[in-house]
Amino acid sequence: MYQVKTFNAIANKGLKTFTTDYTINQEDAPDAYLIRSVNLLKAQFPTTLKVIARAGAGVNNIPLKEATDNGIAVFNTPGSNANAVKELVISMMIATSRKVFAAYDYSHKNIHADISKQVEYDKAKFNGTELFGKNLLVVGLGNVGSLVANEAVNLGMNVRGYDPFLSADSAWKINNRVQRLTSLYQALKDADYVTIHVPKNKDTIGLISTKEIQAMKKGVILFNYARGGIVDNQAVVENLGKIQFYCTDFGDDIIADNEKVITTPHIGGSTLEAEDNGAIKAANTIMNFLENGDTVNSVNLPGMKLPFNAPYRFTIMHKNVPNMVGQITTFLAQAHVNINNMANAAKGETAYTIIDADNLNYKEQLINQIQAIPEVRRVRLIDHR
Ligand SMILES: NC(=O)c1ccc[n+]([C@@H]2O[C@H](COP(=O)([O-])OP(=O)(O)OC[C@H]3O[C@@H](n4cnc5c(N)ncnc54)[C@H](O)[C@@H]3O)[C@@H](O)[C@H]2O)c1
Ligand SMILES: O=C(O)[C@H](O)COP(=O)(O)O
C-alpha cells in the first residue's frame, strides 16, 4: 500500500484515479504529497516521502533544493489549467477595454424605474475600445502564454511574444502570426496590452518594474496572472497615470483599493475542468513514479520513462558527478545481479539512474551499499514480480 497526503482542495476525480493500492490521508507515513498552492517552503519532510506532485503549474511554493537533497522527486502538471488562465486573461482584456467594471458599478448604483432614459445620456462615459487591430505583447510563451497569444491572433490582434527560453515544444504550438521579439524593451514600447506568463524565480522577480513600465506606452493595460512579485506592485501604483488598468490574480496592500487595479483572488486555474485535469494528471504522475520510477514532468529530475520488462527495478536519485553509474553497477556485479536494461540522465546538479535487473541477491546489503554512496540521495527497489 502507498500513502498519499493531500493539501488544499483536490478534485474528487483526481482522488478517484488512485487504485486500491493507495490510501488518501488515512495514515501518517506518506509516500506522496498531492498539493496545489500550499506553502511548503518551511516544511519538514518525513523520511517516508518520495514524491511531491503539484496539481497545477507553479512550483514556487515548494523548496526544490531541500526536496532534492532529501531524495524527493517533484512534479507539476504542465498545461493542466492553461486554458482556464487563457480564458480569464482574454475576458479581462475585453472587460477592461469595454469598461465593464465601471459600467456594472454605474448600473448597480442606479437601479430605479426610469434608468432606461438616463442610460442613453450616461453611456458615453463607458465608451470602450476593441481588441481587434491592437498590439498585444505576451511575455513568456509556455503553456499559458502560447494559448493567450494564439487566441489573441484569432481575435484579430497584432501579437508579439518575448521568451528568450522558449522550448521547442512550445514553439510548435504558437501561431506563426505571433511575431517573436528578442528585446523586452523593444517589445514593450508599442504594446496596447502586456500580459505576463513566466514562472516566478530569482530571475523573474521584478521582471516588470519602473524601468519596464517607463518603456511602455501611455494607456497600456497590464495583466499579471502568473505570480505576485513578478510585476513590482509599488512601481505599478506609482505609474497608474500611464497604466490604464492593472489586472492581477495576486492582490496585496500596495495595490488595494484603487479603481485602476482589478484584482481577483488567484482564480486563474480555478475551473472545474482545470481542477479535474490537474488532479487526474497529478494522481497518475504519483502512481507512475512510485510503481515504475517514471519521471516525466519532474521539475527536479530529468524526464525519463523506460519500459519495465524485468522483475526488479532500481531507481537511484544522485548527484550529477562522475563515476556514479560505475560505483552502482560494481555493487550489482559483486552481488551477481544481471542488468537487463538501464538508463541514466541528468538535470542540472541532479541525476537519475534506472536499472532493471533479471535477478536479485543480497537485497538489503545491496540497497545499503548503494544508499551509502555519499552522492546518492535515494535508492528505491521496485519489485514487479
Ligand atoms: N493564476 C493562476 O491561477 C495560474 C495558473 C496557471 C499558471 N500560473 C502561472 O503562470 C505562469 C506561466 O505558467 P505556464 O504553465 O505557462 O508555465 P510554462 O513553464 O509552461 O511557461 C513559462 C514560459 O516562460 C518562459 N520564461 C521563463 N523566464 C522568462 C523570462 N525571464 N522572460 C520571458 N520568458 C520567460 C519560459 O521559457 C516558458 O516558455 C507561471 O508563473 C505559473 O505559476 C498561474
Ligand atoms: O500555478 C498554478 O497552477 C496556479 O497558480 C493555480 O494554483 P492553484 O492550484 O492553487 O489554484
From TrEMBL:
<protein>
    <recommendedName>
        <fullName>D-3-phosphoglycerate dehydrogenase</fullName>
        <ecNumber>1.1.1.399</ecNumber>
        <ecNumber>1.1.1.95</ecNumber>
    </recommendedName>
</protein>
<comment type="pathway">
    <text>Amino-acid biosynthesis; L-serine biosynthesis; L-serine from 3-phospho-D-glycerate: step 1/3.</text>
</comment>
<feature type="domain" description="ACT">
    <location>
        <begin position="313"/>
        <end position="384"/>
    </location>
</feature>
<dbReference type="InterPro" id="IPR002912">
    <property type="entry name" value="ACT_dom"/>
</dbReference>
<keyword id="KW-0560">Oxidoreductase</keyword>
<comment type="similarity">
    <text>Belongs to the D-isomer specific 2-hydroxyacid dehydrogenase family.</text>
</comment>
<dbReference type="InterPro" id="IPR006140">
    <property type="entry name" value="D-isomer_DH_NAD-bd"/>
</dbReference>
<dbReference type="Pfam" id="PF02826">
    <property type="entry name" value="2-Hacid_dh_C"/>
</dbReference>
<dbReference type="InterPro" id="IPR045865">
    <property type="entry name" value="ACT-like_dom_sf"/>
</dbReference>
<dbReference type="InterPro" id="IPR029753">
    <property type="entry name" value="D-isomer_DH_CS"/>
</dbReference>
<comment type="function">
    <text>Catalyzes the reversible oxidation of 3-phospho-D-glycerate to 3-phosphonooxypyruvate, the first step of the phosphorylated L-serine biosynthesis pathway. Also catalyzes the reversible oxidation of 2-hydroxyglutarate to 2-oxoglutarate.</text>
</comment>
<dbReference type="Pfam" id="PF00389">
    <property type="entry name" value="2-Hacid_dh"/>
</dbReference>
<dbReference type="InterPro" id="IPR036291">
    <property type="entry name" value="NAD(P)-bd_dom_sf"/>
</dbReference>
<dbReference type="InterPro" id="IPR006139">
    <property type="entry name" value="D-isomer_2_OHA_DH_cat_dom"/>
</dbReference>
